[in-house]
Amino acid sequence: MTAELRPLSRDHFDQLWKAQDGQCALCGKAMPRVRFDVAHASIWKKQRPTFDHIIPKAGGGPDRLENLQLAHAVCNKRKGKRQAGGSDGRVAT
Ligand SMILES: [Zn+2]
């Protein structure tokens, strides 16, 4: 019997961190785990690990472990912007 994890809890974080070996799911580079891993708060703000919904919440994706991955704050933001831009997959050049 496993206890139900609270959405986006520390347990989710630890499990995902372990599964991804501390690497960003979007760019594949290492993420700092805690604020003190980086020199400046401004770096932390961009590089900190955040929960990314594989199926976006807007698209009905649940707050469940299967639908979550960890990604840098900047990578997460970039992805969110791309998805918000429509679904035709075209890239403006
Ligand atoms: Zn990244």
Automatic annotation (TrEMBL):
Q: Which organism does this sequence originate in? A: Henriciella algicola
- Protein known as: HNH endonuclease
Q: Which Pfam families match?
A: HNH
The entry's keywords: Endonuclease, Hydrolase, Nuclease
GO MF terms here are: endonuclease activity; nucleic acid binding; zinc ion binding
- Alphabetized Gene3D superfamilies for the sequence: 1.10.30.50
Recorded superkingdom: Bacteria
- Alphabetical list of InterPro entries matching this protein: HNH, HNH_nuc
The residue ranges of the HNH nuclease domain are: 33-77
